[in-house]
Amino acid sequence: MKIAFIASRSDVAQDALTALSARYGNVTREEAEVIVALGGDGFMLQALHDSQELSTPVYGMNRGTIGFLMNAYAEEDLVDRLRAAEEAVINPLVMVATHANGETSKALALNEVALLREGPQAAKLRISVDGRVRMEELVCDGALVATPAGSTAYNYSAHGPILPIGADVLALTAMAAFRPRRWRGALLPKTVTVRFDVLEPAKRPVMADADGNSYRDVVAVEITSDPLIKHRILFDPGHGLEERLISEQFN
């Protein structure tokens, strides 16, 4: 099997890269049947973004700290593990952010797109879904739209719901909502376009974040799911993403 090994910069990941390359060989991502990413969840997200033009599946082995998207690390029997692996297919979010100076930024997110206050004052956001205003004003520290794959990350920490991997829905979750104080967020069809308009942006500046990539001084952000981009992630049998999402709710 042709395997492309890639690794984060940490010493433990680089040591694993050396050991596995010596044992199984190492080809380029373009030649590979499987890409094996060595690191943590952050590096796995980076690996998926970097390989989105390829149809090659990505199998992660944990050489980081969290490892929700990763499999256990072992040097033995890797080819057998890859052949037996279960596949999950996820679609990213597309974020288009408009800045205060009129420029736009575009980014993809596999976990979530978040809007966060930049200064000491709470953000004020207007929320529209498919062009219809659903909330005139949300006063909060921020808000996010999460995919099922990302629903156990920032979304869950903000008390948003965990979504089954096969669910065709997105989670819209507020962070530290002040008005309306008891708003619990929303579940939205995967096909919708969510728009956030920043109210009073000069007084209450807001930044947008797509999987850790930040964009400052935004005045509007539109978020959609792109079904044409498909990321293939491999998991050991019995430890697939669907099982992990279910298990997380009982921990």
CATH superfamily heading of the largest domain: Probable inorganic polyphosphate/atp-NAD kinase, domain 2
Q: How many structural domains does the protein architecture include?
A: 2
Query: How many H/I helical runs?
Result: 5
What are the segments in which pLDDT stays under 50 over at least 5 consecutive residues? none
Integer average pLDDT: 93
Task: Please give the order of strands in the largest beta sheet.
Answer: 6-5-16-13-8-9
CATH topology of the largest domain: Tumour Suppressor Smad4
Global geometry:
elongated
Question: What about the largest sheet?
Answer: 6 strands, antiparallel
Description of the structure:
There is one protein chain. The protein has five helices and 17 strands. With 251 residues, the protein is of the alpha+beta class. The chain folds into two domains: 107 residues, 3-Layer(aba) Sandwich (Rossmann fold); 133 residues, Probable inorganic polyphosphate/atp-NAD kinase, domain 2 (Tumour Suppressor Smad4, Sandwich). The strands form three sheets. A six-stranded antiparallel sheet has the order 6-5-16-13-8-9, with no helix packed on it. Strands 12-11-10-7-14-15 form a six-stranded antiparallel sheet, with no helix packed on it. The longest helix is centred in the first third of the chain and has 14 residues. The protein is elongated, with a radius of gyration of 19 Å. The two termini are 37 Å apart. Its cofactor is a divalent metal cation. This is NAD kinase.
